[in-house]
Amino acid sequence: MSSDLPAHPYGADIGAVLIDEPTLQARVRELAEEVSDRYRDAEEDIVLVCILKGAAVFLSDFSRALTVPAQLEFMVVSSYGNAAESSGTVTIVKDLATDIAGRHVVVVEDIIDSGRTLAWLVDTLAERDPASLEVVALLRKPDRVVVDVACESLGFEVPDEFIVGYGLDYAERYRTLPWIGALRPEVYR
């Protein structure tokens, strides 16, 4: 954890940088290599399912680092709204445009917190009969996990703090930071 904050537009809202940009980018490339190795012999393009909005930045870098053909799909599911804690009720706001039956599907997730939303999503997608279904997640908070979801590739484990940057937000702010930081508690309480 670094206490030296790079220049950013959010003043004193960020308490610390947890994962700097070079470390983050290197690990995203490694995750893409791991997934590429697993699907090297796939006969069809894999389908990357991005959970918007949080995973969009991760998907962008991850997909460009893949060395196998991939198609991009997007879903919006909601369990947070503008709250700091999940409501526990998951709703699909935007569903997939592509039929994933018989396809190799990789869910691209920004962060596994409690695991409830991701577990629900994996179960929902599994009902659509994909050839395979796996999760690649950038971050996981091990101290918060309530429902353990299989994650074939994981970027980093992070502490139980409010994490922002690189697509992750609080009330739609902080997504554009190029690194992962911890939001000061007084900002979200």
Automatic annotation (TrEMBL):
Coiled coil: none
Catalytic activity: IMP + diphosphate = hypoxanthine + 5-phospho-alpha-D-ribose 1-diphosphate; GMP + diphosphate = guanine + 5-phospho-alpha-D-ribose 1-diphosphate
Enzyme class: transferase
UniProt cross-references to Pfam families, sorted A to Z: Pribosyltran
Pathway: Purine metabolism; GMP biosynthesis via salvage pathway; GMP from guanine: step 1/1; Purine metabolism; IMP biosynthesis via salvage pathway; IMP from hypoxanthine: step 1/1
Alphabetic keyword roster: Cytoplasm, Glycosyltransferase, Magnesium, Metal-binding, Nucleotide-binding, Purine salvage, Transferase
Record-annotated Phosphoribosyltransferase domain positions: 22-170
UniProt GO molecular function: guanine phosphoribosyltransferase activity; hypoxanthine phosphoribosyltransferase activity; magnesium ion binding; nucleotide binding
EC number: 2.4.2.8
Record-linked InterPro entries: HGPRT, Hxn_phspho_trans, PRTase-like, PRTase_dom
Necessary cofactors: Mg(2+)
Localization per record: Cytoplasm
GO biological process terms on file: GMP salvage; guanine salvage; hypoxanthine metabolic process; IMP salvage; purine ribonucleoside salvage
GO cellular component, as recorded: cytosol
Superkingdom in the source lineage: Bacteria
Record family assignment: Belongs to the purine/pyrimidine phosphoribosyltransferase family.
Protein name: Hypoxanthine phosphoribosyltransferase
